[in-house]
Amino acid sequence: MKRLLQWLNAPGAGGPHTVQKLRNPFDLDTPLSYFGDDPKDVFTIRHAVEGIQIWGGSGGGKSSSSGAHLALALLKSGAGGIVFTVKPDEPRIWKKYCALTGRLNDLIIFAPTEPWRFNPIEYSYRQAHSGHVTENIVNLFASLAEVLDRGAGQNTPDYWARAMNQLTRNAVDLAAISRGTPTLDLISRTIVTAPQSPEEARADAWQRTSLCYKLIEEGERRPKTAIQQADWPQVVRFWLQEFPTLSSRTRSCIVSTFSTIAEVFLRGELRRLFGGVTNVTPEATFAGKILLLALPIKQFGELGRLAQVLWKHLWQKAAEARDITTNPRHVFLWADESQHFISRADPLFLTTSRSAKVITVLLTQNVPNYLSVLSRAEVDSLLGNLATKIWHRNSCTVTNTLAAETIARSRQFRWTTGLSMNDAAFGGQRLSHNVGGSDGVELELLPGDFQFLRSGGPENRFEVDAIIYQAGRLWAGSGKNYLRVTFNQKDYV
């Protein structure tokens, strides 16, 4: 505990300008923090980029103890990052963290009341380094559709997902080839004015009034890149032949899947945030900025979740695409109540994000939170790629059992003793004392042990217990593959 506090309270805990005074501040072996008093129990950037999962039941103290400790350590190290929010008080807490570490000037608050704006369609389309740029937008909408369907308790069959991707792809290509850079409004109007039958596609009245047909005419005349020239016949064929021949029910389902996403970003606060001129992008965090998405779900509901998932999708792609040889700064993705933001793409992202120096920190109450949005195999993959796990007090038997099994079993020797009374000569009795033992493999910690970890507050003198595990590591302070640590909530206020 003493070393842990000495590290966080060390002089000069202030942002990138201070960090630059240190030698190789972004080297993977640079310490982020210490857990416990033994100097060998250092927690480095190398450890952190392998992923961090923090568990704790409601009121278990995860956010106000280990969560706060790691947040301050990351800020103190000069890391840039993106922060997702669920509760309305999270922006205030992160402003406090930035103030404590001298990082207020690096804080960007993305909210309706702030000046920052981000046009994701324009941004996605201009990321030419990722190949066929249309697929950037298609994948973005696919990611949003997954989250939207999940929130509605639906599991979209593969056909409908592929059909929406096809619709989006052809709408984006038509808008881009005809007008240069697509916009969400132009893409949406293209779909709305598309022909509803083969007869309508041939009708003069439709051709005179349809934006979709007008874009086809413009696209015919415009110069095209080699890729656009190859794709153009398929784009025209889709809008004039394939789309009109779909059954009305099928067509309406596909269009509705797209429009329920697009409409969110075409009206109200999200239109102002995402529909104008971009003045902040994911790349800002790679230069040391802290991007706080102040659109908490508890306040903005489904709109807040979709907006933040949009940012997450594009930030992850940009983080993996950056060149860490020219920009070696480590960056972090922070999600408390992380079950609201994870998607099927996250397990795959975690398999490769280490090489991009991305530190993913997820906090949630229990395993069932993840199982409610991902399959068992996807959850196993997600957790398998988060090497550091921190457990706080929890009453969830599923989570506690997984914790005990993760820490694993060890060979233990159990002594047994006993007394017995036997008949002796001349009618007397003799007392015998037996001593024995057995060698077996048993759990190091029982699932029930996690129920009794202290959770802070006045009744516990604000002390919060945690069990820390890191894959492949023996902790010097315990000589085991887990370490019991106590945080004091008053150290982070």
Describe the structure in brief:
This protein has 493 residues and is of the alpha/beta class. It has helices at residues 2-8, 15-19, 45-48, 63-76, 90-100, 120-125, 134-151, 158-179, 184-192, 198-202, 204-209, 211-221, 226-245, 248-262, 268-274, 283-286, 297-321, 345-352, 367-371, 376-384, 397-407, and strands at residues 31-34, 42-44, 52-55, 80-84, 107-110, 290-293, 331-336, 358-364, 388-391, 409-423, 429-443, 463-470, 482-488.
Percent helix, as a range, is: 40-55%
Chain-averaged pLDDT: 88
Largest sheet composition: 9 strands, mixed
Which of globular, elongated, flat, extended, rod-shaped describes the shape? elongated
Widest β-sheet, arrangement of strands: 5-6-4-7-8-3-9-12-13
**Given the structure, what is the number of helices?**
21
In total, how many beta strands?
Answer: 13
Spans of at least 5 consecutive residues with low confidence: 11-22
Q: In what range is the share of β-strand residues? A: 15-25%
End-to-end CA span? 17 Å
Radius of gyration: 28 Å
Secondary-structure class: alpha/beta
Summary keywords:
45% helix, 21 helices, 17% strand, two-stranded antiparallel sheet, alpha/beta, 493 residues, nine-stranded mixed β-sheet
Walk me through the structure.
45% of the residues lie in helices and 17% in strands. By secondary structure, it is an alpha/beta fold. The protein has a 9-stranded mixed β-sheet, sandwiched between helices. The protein has a two-stranded antiparallel ribbon with strand order 1-2. The protein has a two-stranded antiparallel sheet with strand order 10-11. A hairpin with a 5-residue loop joins strand 10 and strand 11. It is elongated and about 115 Å long. About 2% of the residues have low confidence.
